[in-house]
Write a structure and sequence with these properties.
Length: 247
């Protein structure tokens, strides 16, 4: 197993991409700590992880926008597991609207969750990651953070910021052997995309060269690779996984 003995914290693990990453990590032998807006929402993912390995799962109901709650969750993970090797900042939201109609509230909600949230967790986790022999930071951004998207100025800004943030952290922590990378998914079938208009989906599909939407597992397998020893010489990179959508 590629992640035997590793301890991982994954935010946004109640469903979608975060859940798939948690299960894939557990399948590879990692002990996982899960975070989402409430601990109740994590029970199902925790059971799925325990089907993979019998290790105890930690669950944290928190708002990633709250720095104190993020600090407490990181500390509790380190106390419970005896360390922390892998952090995946995956929690994210969208509040789409055209620029002229984009409210202050929707702009801030997206920036605070997707970018500030990743900062809150990463700052709290930086010390334990530096102590680890194989520290890994994996931030889930989006192709929208690279190419932009009409109707998603707030989301694009948060994800573009997350890419720049990750590259900076990679430079800061490289001397301590910690890698920091971004996965930039394209269109993945989760709750986040389920509510999109059928016409929007149809148009999006036309632009995907591999002819299908991505699955959360497509992202999870890449996260395993970056977290494993196979990824130990990869840092400050953005791995686009979009079926050729932005090619
Ligand atoms: P999803 O199904 O909507 O799940 C979002 C997750 O984030 C949930 O676990 C949710 O917890 C958690 N979350 C949201 N706000 C939070 C907060 N303030 N504090 C703590 N947790 C919070 O989304 P997804 O599609 O799996 O997306 C996961 C990540 O991939 C996001 O960062 C997203 O931007 C990115 N991404 C997705 C796609 C796509 O096509 N789906 C494409 C590119 C990038 P609750 O269940 O408790 O609400």
């Amino acid at each position: 197993m590629q992640l035997n003995g590793r301890k991982a914290l994954i935010t946004g693990a109640s469903r979608g991409i975060g859940r798939a990453i948690a299960i894939a990590f557990a399948q590879q032998g990692a002990q996982v700590a899960l975070a989402a807006t409430s601990a109740d929402r994590l029970v199902e993912t925790a059971a799925m992880c325990q089907e993979q390995n019998k290790l105890d799962v930690a669950m944290f109901g928190l708002d990633v926008r709250d720095p104190k709650a993020c600090e407490a969750a990181v500390k509790a993970t380190v106390d419970k597991f005896g360390g922390l090797d892998i952090v995946v900042n995956n929690a994210g939201v969208t509040r789409d609207n055209l620029l002229m109609r984009l409210s202050d509230e929707d702009y801030d909600a997206v920036l605070d969750t997707n970018l500030r949230g990743a900062f809150n967790i990463t700052r709290a986790a930086s010390r334990p990651l530096m102590k680890s022999k194989a520290g890994r930071l994996i931030n889930i951004a989006s192709v929208v953070g690279i190419v932009g998207n009409a109707g998603q100025a707030n989301y694009a800004a948060s994800k573009g910021g997350l890419i720049a943030f990750t590259k900076s952290v990679a430079k800061e922590l490289a001397g301590r052997g910690v890698t920091a990378n971004v996965i930039a998914p394209g269109f993945i079938e989760t709750d986040m995309t389920a509510s999109l208009d059928a016409k929007v989906k149809e148009e999006a599909l036309k632009g995907i060269r591999l002819g299908r939407f991505g699955k959360p597992e497509d992202i999870a397998q890449a996260a395993v690779y970056l977290a494993s020893d196979a990824g130990s010489y990869i840092t400050a990179q953005v791995l686009v996984i979009d079926g050729g959508m932005t090619a």
